[in-house]
């Protein structure tokens, strides 16, 4: 369910990075909020379903499963009692502003968690686990029965604890083996290298001792420190038993922080989800965060926090944000307390944030543009917790660049003596400022697109992998960059009234060969865009088995708008409610089925429970009459020939064959849904997996080396962002840092100190899906026989900002 992760989340973007003034805790009547949410659902949801006995039963089951998703805390006796007391009657309670059932169930859940943690602690102290039995445990338990009673729960938890301990033991062993292999490899490299010899890579890179001088600097010119290691050199590692117990105890700490507002939030989220998976109740903080997600900017200090050892630790700092400009806050600093204002008079108090949830720390650091927040921090690297200092930061606007549109210009190696210039646009969300209209992903994409056209690209890929959607308006406008004026999407409301939306451009900005790349996570607005271009015969859609299948329209309704004038509304939150269903211009819905690609690539996710059809209460698929529209091409796209070429390449590509093999194994594991508690069996499975991984690693290395010997040229890649799109010189991808890409400075990973990721193991340094997509685009260019489209002189000047 949607908010399961929010219950125990340990990482939050400083949406501390904050959005708006945070009101002090008000005495909001949450029973009144619940009643109005119920009436809003009845009156505004697409189904117009009364909140009656039927919905009441669904709500109870949803709430029980939300709190205890794996069915390990409640007993069947508890569940039977809840069903006896509340099944079919929650609607009556809520209509009379009574939220006591939500609290009663939650407090019983809290009680059961405490009992289970106490049982786990005793078992870890007194029971000897041998890991040599033939027992198994279920991997996923959401469909398993609850334990019958406390005795059955005890028996279940003995297995669960043994499973956790075994996982920790195997993890320790794997880490030790990895460290040993790494040390052996370094020793071999050192022995094989003559004294004074330097590889070409070493000559091209500065010595390690000079690295600090090249590291990112704060506004005061100080080098950024790495995060301190979790353990001191002389401090012993925690045992598996200690780590498992700490995990359980942390759960108790998080539960203790929940207030009535949090509990009501969970309960109303389950009520909203009883209507369909995308109808959501959002607390006031979630409402603020939603605006931040859509606008990609906020007001705050510009930092990334995570919860570590019961404190908030700085994991990243937004380049150019208030914290970065102030210069004192460092990556790895641990926040101990938060204060407001200049620290004098009524602003002199500190609030200790140890054991506090990140969500509440976030709220404390939020505030108005230009106001001051004080942080009491324990510096990164300090082993003395009493070593603290105070940092005062003036809140300001922070731009979140990581999810903004960006592009690549890719020069391919020659084929039959001819190289191609291809464009690649990455769009991870259909973002927009829905209030002031100053932020538009379409406007950003258009800037990037015109620069690519000025560089005379022959074809273009729009990459929508992982794009969960966003603004419907932006999906329509973005479609208008590639097709002339015409219908883009249809919608039907609860009265069966059908409406449609057109893109308004008289002529497309780009008319050349086009490929749209999707995956199972491409949803909503992504599906509208991909479906429209597919229906117009404008683009070849390539991707996994299907897109997500979210074909519904939501609107945001502030709950306060429906509450009485004199009531306290400051914490009322908002309802994101489904009001329409989407339909393609060809008549079919994107609901449930998603967009089926023209060209399918092998993917592990094809056998996973991912997508609309795996969600509870999903609305059905249906069709409506097609709109009248004109195809972008007189003849169909050469899909059969493209598919034939793709099938040949996939069959000859070991990377895709690995995926096919792994998919078969994954499907078998999913169907089995059990894991052994026998250490020897588990170790054997892990050894087989590692051996397979090592074999593939060796094979990949050999392929990359063979390619280096035979290929005369590789792909030349250049990165375009909204920061450099107007600059005359292109920036090579190899010279483009992660900091430039994300706008965030983060601690270096010990496993990846040189910044080199897994992509270097693949031919040309590209993931297989990306490389195959470029092959498809080249096929399309060749088969369509269309010349490269360039931006005209006036367009080029506009793209360059002149």
TrEMBL record:
Keyword line: Hydrolase, Protease, Serine protease, Signal
Domain of life according to the entry: Bacteria
Comp. bias intervals (Basic and acidic residues): 177-200, 208-225
Pfam families: DUF3340, PDZ, Peptidase_S41, TSP_NTD
Record keyword Signal present: yes
GO biological process: proteolysis; signal transduction
A GO molecular-function descriptor: serine-type peptidase activity
Keyword Cytoplasm assigned: no
Residue numbers spanned by region Disordered: 177-242, 681-701
Signal sequence residues: 1-26
GO CC annotation terms, alphabetical: outer membrane-bounded periplasmic space
UniProt domain PDZ: residue ranges: 291-372
Protein family membership: Belongs to the peptidase S41A family.
Protein name: Carboxyl-terminal processing protease
Record lineage: Bacteria, Pseudomonadati, Verrucomicrobiota, Verrucomicrobiia, Verrucomicrobiales
């Amino acid at each position: 369910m949607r908010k399961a992760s929010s219950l125990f989340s340990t990482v939050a973007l400083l949406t501390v990075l904050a959005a708006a003034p945070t009101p002090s805790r008000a005495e909001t009547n949450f029973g009144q909020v619940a009643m109005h949410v119920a009436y809003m659902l009845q009156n505004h949801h697409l189904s117009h379903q009364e909140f009656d006995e039927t919905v009441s039963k669904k709500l109870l089951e949803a709430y029980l499963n939300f709190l205890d998703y794996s069915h390990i805390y409640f007993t069947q006796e508890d569940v039977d009692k809840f069903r006896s007391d509340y099944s079919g009657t929650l609607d009556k309670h809520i209509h009379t502003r009574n939220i006591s059932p939500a609290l009663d169930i939650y407090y019983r859940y809290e009680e059961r968690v405490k009992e289970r943690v106490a049982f786990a602690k005793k078992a870890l102290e007194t029971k000897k686990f041998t890991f040599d039995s033939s027992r198994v445990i279920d991997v996923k338990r959401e469909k398993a029965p609850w334990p019958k009673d406390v005795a059955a729960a005890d028996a279940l938890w003995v297995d669960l604890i043994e499973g956790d301990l075994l996982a920790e033991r195997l993890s320790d062993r794997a880490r030790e083996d990895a460290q040993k292999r790494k040390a052996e490899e370094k020793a071999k490299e050192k022995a094989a290298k003559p004294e004074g010899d330097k590889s070409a890579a070493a000559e091209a890179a500065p010595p390690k001792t000079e690295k600090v001088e090249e590291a990112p600097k704060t506004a005061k010119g100080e080098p950024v420190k790495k995060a301190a290691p979790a353990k001191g050199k002389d401090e012993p590692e925690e045992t598996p038993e200690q780590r498992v117990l700490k995990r359980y105890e942390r759960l108790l700490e998080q539960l203790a922080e929940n207030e009535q507002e949090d509990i009501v939030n969970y309960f109303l989220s389950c009520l909203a989800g009883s209507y369909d998976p995308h109808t959501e109740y959002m607390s006031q903080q979630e409402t603020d965060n939603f605006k931040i997600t859509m606008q990609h900017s906020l007001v705050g200090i510009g930092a990334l926090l995570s919860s570590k050892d019961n404190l908030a630790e700085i994991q990243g700092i937004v380049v150019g944000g208030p914290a970065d400009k102030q210069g004192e806050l460092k990556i790895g600093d641990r926040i101990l307390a938060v204060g407001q204002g200049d620290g004098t008079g009524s602003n002199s108090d500190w609030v200790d944030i140890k054991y506090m949830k990140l969500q509440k720390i976030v709220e404390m650091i939020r505030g108005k543009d230009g106001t001051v927040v004080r942080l009491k921090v324990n510096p990164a690297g300090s082993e003395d917790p009493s070593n603290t200092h105070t940092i005062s930061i003036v809140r300001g606007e922070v731009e979140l660049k990581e999810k903004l549109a960006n592009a690549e210009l890719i020069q391919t190696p020659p084929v039959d003596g001819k190289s191609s210039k291809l464009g690649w646009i990455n769009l991870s969300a259909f973002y927009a400022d829905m209030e002031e209209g100053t932020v538009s992903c379409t406007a950003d994409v258009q800037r990037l697109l015109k620069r690519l056209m000025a560089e005379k690209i022959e074809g273009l890929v729009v990459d929508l992998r992982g794009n969960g959607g966003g603004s419907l308006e932006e999906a329509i406008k973005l479609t208008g960059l590639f097709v002339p004026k015409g219908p883009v999407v249809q919608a039907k409301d609860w009265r069966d009234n059908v409406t449609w939306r057109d893109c308004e451009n008289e002529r497309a900005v780009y008319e050349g060969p086009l490929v749209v790349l999707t995956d199972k996570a491409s949803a909503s607005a992504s599906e509208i865009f991909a479906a429209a271009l597919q229906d117009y015969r404008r683009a070849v859609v390539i991707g996994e088995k299907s897109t997500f299948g979210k074909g519904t329209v939501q609107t945001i309704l502030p709950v306060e708008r429906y509450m009485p004038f004199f009531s306290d509304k400051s914490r009322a939150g908002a309802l994101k409610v489904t009001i329409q269903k989407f339909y393609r211009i060809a008549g079919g819905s994107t609901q449930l089925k998603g967009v089926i690609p023209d060209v399918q690539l092998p993917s592990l996710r094809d056998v996973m429970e991912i997508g609309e059809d795996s969600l509870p209460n999903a609305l059905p698929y249906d069709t409506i009459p097609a709109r009248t529209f004109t195809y972008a091409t007189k003849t169909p796209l050469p899909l059969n020939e493209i598919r034939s070429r793709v099938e040949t390449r996939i069959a000859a590509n070991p990377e895709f064959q690995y995926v096919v093999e792994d998919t078969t194994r994954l499907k078998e594991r999913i169907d089995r849904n059990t894991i052994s508690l026998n250490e020897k069996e588990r170790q054997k499975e892990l050894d087989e997996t590692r051996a397979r991984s090592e074999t593939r690693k060796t094979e990949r290395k050999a392929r990359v080396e063979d390619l280096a010997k035979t290929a005369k040229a590789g792909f030349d890649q250049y990165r375009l962002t909204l920061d450099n799109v107007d600059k005359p010189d292109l920036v090579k991808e190899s010279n483009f840092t992660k900091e430039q890409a994300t706008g965030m400075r983060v601690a270096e990973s010990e496993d990846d100190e040189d910044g080199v990721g897994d992509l270097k193991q693949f031919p040309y340094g590209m993931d297989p899906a990306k490389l195959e997509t470029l092959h498809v685009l080249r096929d399309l260019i060749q088969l369509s026989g269309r010349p490269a489209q360039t931006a005209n002189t006036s367009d080029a000047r506009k793209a360059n900002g002149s």
